[in-house]
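Researcher: Next sequence.
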Amino acid sequence: MRTFSLLKGMPVYDRRGEMLGEVCDICIVEEGMVTDLLLQMKGFMGKKMRVPVQSVSSFGEDGIIVDGSGNYSKYQELDDEYTMHHGRSIAKKNTMTPQGEQLGLLDDVYFLEKEGTIVGYELTDGFFSDITEGKRVIRTLVPPNIGKDAIIVSAINQRGGHIHDEMSELSKQGPW
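Model: Next structure:
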């Protein structure tokens, strides 16, 4: 399981060891799936390219290796997808339950590397609240409803909100 914040800025290499660029964002479809990594390509022009999650051979601690199939395409904003920070951004978007309970602002997503399925959301109530109470992590198996003003998620379990909670414990809880 990965989070966007752990991938951001991570170098991406092809199988020959050539660095393609660094992860600058992820592309998310309405079904709650991460479909592509968005790379800031190296070089003077620094174009943004899409690399399908299925093209990733391995997610390492220090870098990402892609299969070298050349499945990459120039980034263009699509009507049916979102990103964390580019195009149709969902970062810092209000997150609510279907019952109308405000959960916080979206800060990060947890997803399964191989499938791209989003299984959790990290939420913030603001800088000072994060320091005093910690960030909250909710997990879900149901795709969110991403609207213009809010994201509606069905929360199975909430974690966090306390300084002693560890985000790493999320991956040890329950089947993902």
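Model: Residues 161-176 have pLDDT under 50 and may be disordered. The chain is about 5% helix and 45% strand.
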